[in-house]
Amino acid sequence: MKEITDYREKQVLVLGLAKSGFEVAKLLLTLGAKVIVNDGSPLEGNPDAEALAAQGVQVVSGSHPPELLDGTDLIVKNPGIPYRIDILQAAQKRAIPIITEVELAYQINEGRTIAITGTNGKTTVTSLIGDMFKHSAKKGYMSGNIGYVASKVAQTVDAADYMITELSSFQLMGIQEYHPHIAVITNIYSAHLDYHGTQDEYVKAKMNIFSNQTAEDYLVYNLDQRSLLADYEVSSRLIFFSTTDKTDGSYILDDKVFFRDEFIIDTADIVLPGKHNMENVLASVAVGKLAGLDNDAIRKTLTTFSGISHRLEFVTEDRGIKYYNDSKATNTLAASFALDAFQQPTHWICGGLDRGNGFEDLDAHISAVTRMYVVGETAEKLTAFAAEHGIPCTLCLDVKDAVNQTAAYTKSGDVVLLSPACASWDQYQTFEVRGDAFIQQVGVLCRQNV
């Protein structure tokens, strides 16, 4: 960990406890800061809050008192907290800097940074790259939005190592000096408009990933979306990936994967399922080669890595019915990939947080859907969508209820697919919690059938 003195005797407000707030508060104490933690929810009895208080951290919960800004030199905010809340609006008027914890992680990281963002595929790409490092002689540490707090991971990274960080648009809005040696943008589609307000603001947040790069760095980018770069200055070296065109990067030709004309692997040997995953593979191959990983390490991953939890995850087969958990499909594009993966009669469990969007993007992807089971805030919209397409629809209380309802309609050869096309936060704390609820109830249902 780099020895930095920037935070000594500085008053830092950590806004939002959660996992990242807890770790960043501890790190700031180590760096000599005076730390205040503020969370809008009550924290009585919270073990993390109690642990911080025992170390001298002032913990304020239940509201965001404006007087917390008095004497504050910096705010480190939880990425999910929108800038429109009163305390952040007031901080901006006072010109108090606001960052997210990945900025702090970058400042203490001794190694090189690989950063991955995008609307879809970023978790898969991060996992693929992390797995490639595991099979190589080099060390790479996964962090960020994938579930490992970046400011904690950064403390263990040495100068010869790589820190591999998945970044959301929320995190990228809170960077200042953040400077990845290799940046990846998998794709950009419409998402998170409830947070960003407009698509332009969402795109701008994503493009922050390369804002501090220089000619010594790399930007790995989807060739199909090259036009989105027209409004941005790219100082780094552009490395494209494409499933359809030969390019100066990674591409497919005659069912083989190449990087800059170097053969890497036959596509038939790649075990990760789904056509959409081929772009993720190509992005990961490009990063692996740029980071100096040998082809054996890259091939080992591509011939063994079969996917990640909650992303088109096969759960079980019971009485000839197959169950798939795709809870990470929090938007229509991700759901379209899952729906396209099946030709069998599909029982589609969907719905969740209403972000104001419609579902017409899925019109061309529902040919195999024989019944919909809708949940959450978007249930009414999805019921209307089902009626428009003549698909029988069942209104359900939650994912558990939806699993139970499928028992009345499924038969051998069918697929039950949880692919919500919506975020989880109306009923579940995270998409992982939602997916786990699905898996657990599938297990209950199958045991009842014994």
UniProtKB/TrEMBL annotation:
Q: Which organism is it from?
A: Macrococcus carouselicus
Q: Which GO terms describe its biological process?
A: cell division; cell wall organization; peptidoglycan biosynthetic process; regulation of cell shape
Pathway in which the depicted protein is active? Cell wall biogenesis; peptidoglycan biosynthesis
- Kind of enzyme, top EC level? ligase
The protein here is known as UDP-N-acetylmuramoylalanine--D-glutamate ligase
- The EC number(s) attached to this protein equal 6.3.2.9
Q: Which GO terms describe its molecular function?
A: ATP binding; UDP-N-acetylmuramoylalanine-D-glutamate ligase activity
Identify the gene encoding this protein.
Answer: murD
What family is it from? Belongs to the MurCDEF family.
